[in-house]
Specification:
Layout (H helix, E strand, L loop, with lengths): L1 H16 L6 E8 L4 E8 L3 E6 L6 E4 L3 E8 L2 E9 L8 E8 L6 H10 L5 E2 L10 E7 L4 E8 L3 E6 L6 E4 L3 E5 L5 E6 L3 E6 L5 H11 L12
Parallel strand pairs: 5-8
Antiparallel strand pairs: 1-2, 1-7, 2-3, 3-4, 5-6, 6-7, 9-10, 9-15, 10-11, 11-12, 13-14, 14-15
This protein binds zinc ion (2 copies).
One zinc ion binds next to β10.
Length: 227
């Protein structure tokens, strides 16, 4: 009896301990193709809710019904659902763009959303790297590219650049594949996109092996990237 109670309690802690309910809300503008409306965007433990001041576009999305969430910048959030626009535009998924009227989305709030979503998000809010494993790179664009640094951490890969919309924070377990045809190139593919990097100096095979093992979940991955 007593054992049952304790194990039940431990289970309760396990379920609630990781991600505390830390819902947050912002005053936002909902951008339409023409014009906009205003309201409150609330991210709670179970769903994202938009309460339009005029009531018209008020909506609630359970996290599981969100196909793609993009933290575009500290003041912009884009959400794509699984619904189709209308019978005429079946190929187009319904999207909602919000701009914050005050305040900023913090990296912590971005991570809160990541833990709630059923699918990988596009996370563009990054903080200064703390890892000692830094690669100086150029991210290739169709024309030219942007320069920055890739920081390899135990569980994350972070691309930091002055070209703010290309900043990314990937969880290694959310990366689908990586590739390196030669030591001066690295390709990172996630569920949402592919980034190809030109490395300014030789890619250490130990770093690549570390990423490979983490991403493909191979056994025996040693803690610590550098020796
Ligand atoms: Zn609206
Ligand atoms: Zn770029």
């Amino acid at each position: 009896m007593r054992f049952k109670f304790i194990s039940g309690f431990v289970m309760y802690l396990a379920l609630t301990g990781g991600a505390q309910a830390e819902s947050f809300e912002f005053r936002v503008k909902h951008d339409h193709t023409l014009g906009s409306c205003e309201g409150k965007l609330i991210a709670s433990d179970r769903e994202i809710r938009y309460e339009a001041t005029n009531g018209k576009h008020s909506r609630t999305w359970a996290y599981i019904d969100i196909q793609k969430l993009d933290v575009v910048s500290p003041t912009r959030l884009a959400l794509k659902t699984f619904e189709s626009q209308s019978w005429k535009q079946l190929e187009k998924d319904r999207a909602f763009d919000f701009s914050l009227l005050e305040g900023k989305i913090t990296p912590d709030q971005q991570e809160f959303l990541r833990t709630k979503l059923g699918r990988p998000m596009v996370a563009r809010l990054v903080e200064k790297a703390t890892s000692s494993t830094l690669l100086l790179v150029r991210h290739r664009h169709r024309l030219g590219g942007c320069e920055g640094q890739l920081s390899v951490e135990e569980e994350r890969l972070i691309y930091l650049t002055d070209h703010a919309s290309d900043n990314r924070l990937w969880k290694l377990r959310e990366i689908e594949t990586i590739g390196s045809p030669d030591p001066y190139h690295l390709r990172v593919t996630t569920y949402n996109e592919t980034f190809t990097f030109d490395l300014k100096s030789l890619l250490d095979s130990k770093i690549y092996d570390f990423l490979w093992k983490k991403i493909y979940r191979l056994e025996g991955v040693q803690a610590g990237v550098t020796e």
